[in-house]
Automatic annotation (TrEMBL):
One of its GO terms (molecular function) is iron-sulfur cluster binding. It comes from the Archaea. The keyword Cell wall biogenesis/degradation does not apply. The gene is hydD. Keywords: Oxidoreductase. This is Cytosolic NiFe-hydrogenase, delta subunit. The chain holds residues 1 to 170 of 264 of the full protein. Residues 16-151 form the NADH:ubiquinone oxidoreductase-like 20kDa subunit domain. It comes from Thermococcus kodakarensis (strain ATCC BAA-918 / JCM 12380 / KOD1). The lineage of its organism: Archaea, Methanobacteriati, Methanobacteriota, Thermococci, Thermococcales.
């Protein structure tokens, strides 16, 4: 009799993909868990994955374009549990720090006159747009925090909020 698989998605908004790299280091562990299926992973292929229904959605990156604001809502609609991963997703990341400057000025500083296909906006944490069930802090998060969160969710429990100091010795 086949056991129902728990479907996991890993999505990226505006980010450096560093959190996904941490996740990649867990991939071998995940392969040892027979009832886990990675249904989508933006780092490998980004192709309308947000429409896939998943049990747990891990989201990296801040909402920094109008398109991402829509994307993150779609991911939420299709996920039972949403986990914000890393400083960009949880707090907005470094790209959200210059809130006092006009977006146009920031944009020009970074991209000059480059033409882009998306509509930029001030970077914000994903919780400003959707309900987030759990946060994993860090930039990138510690692998053990990933494992703790995932492992706890997989056994049907709920992870405790991880107190995240500035440095591990603090
Ligand atoms: Fe990269 Fe840090 Fe943002 Fe993760 S939290 S995407 S590691 S900048």
């Amino acid at each position: 009799m086949s056991e129902k698989k728990i479907r996991i998605g890993f999505y990226a908004l505006t980010s450096c993909y560093g959190c996904q790299l941490q996740f990649a280091m867990m991939d071998e562990i995940l392969q040892l868990i027979p009832n886990v299926e990675i249904a989508c992973w933006f780092m490998l292929e980004r192709d309308s994955y947000e429409d896939e229904p998943v049990d747990i959605a891990f989201i990296e990156g801040s909402v920094s374009t109008e398109e991402e604001a829509e994307l993150v809502k779609k991911i939420r609609e299709n996920a039972k549990i949403v986990v914000a991963v890393g400083s960009c997703a949880v707090q907005g990341g470094v790209q959200s720090w210059e809130k006092d400057k006009p977006l146009e000025e920031l944009w020009k500083t970074v991209y000059g006159d480059a033409k882009v296909k998306f509509q930029p906006k001030m970077a914000e944490p994903i919780s400003n747009y959707i309900k987030v069930d759990y946060n994993i802090y860090g930039c990138p998060p510690e692998k053990r925090d990933f494992l703790y969160t995932l492992g706890t969710l997989l056994i049907g429990s709920w992870p405790e909020d991880i107190d995240y100091p500035v440095c591990l010795e603090c």
